[in-house]
Every structure is written in structure tokens, then in C-alpha cells.
Amino acid sequence: MKFKVANINCQNCANLIKNSLEDEFGKIEVDLNVMPRTVEINITQEKLEDFKKEMSDLGFEVLEEL
């Protein structure tokens, strides 16, 4: 799944997401070349709400699924 995400500004933000969430959710790709930034993750529907909450807790709002 791919999502538009707010508040990702730099590589440090991308690293924070990866370091904080990859152990729980698996490989995460952050595209810093588009605005708003996108996050791609292979996730089940059951874990989707947990992922969105964890992103929000880190300060990144999931805007929409692409």
C-alpha cells in the first residue's frame, strides 16, 4: 500500500519512520522526491489502523491511500 503523508520534510524524518516502525510493520519505503511525501509499505488491512496511529504518534499524518 502507498500513502500520502504530511510533515515528512527530510531524510531524518524518513529514518525516524523506518527505525521506529520497520520492526513491527516490515520494510517501509519513503519517497522524498514528491510532495506530499509518500510512504510505501506491504501491510495487511488488520494492521492498517495501528500503522496510522503509530505514524500519528510520531507526528506524521497519513493523508490518503494511493
From TrEMBL:
**Pfam families from the entry?**
HMA
* Residue ranges of domain HMA in the record: 3-61
What Gene Ontology molecular-function terms does this entry list?
Answer: metal ion binding
Specify the signal sequence span. none
Domain of life, per the record? Bacteria
Query: What's the protein name?
Result: Copper chaperone
Organism lineage string: Bacteria, Pseudomonadati, Campylobacterota, Epsilonproteobacteria, Campylobacterales
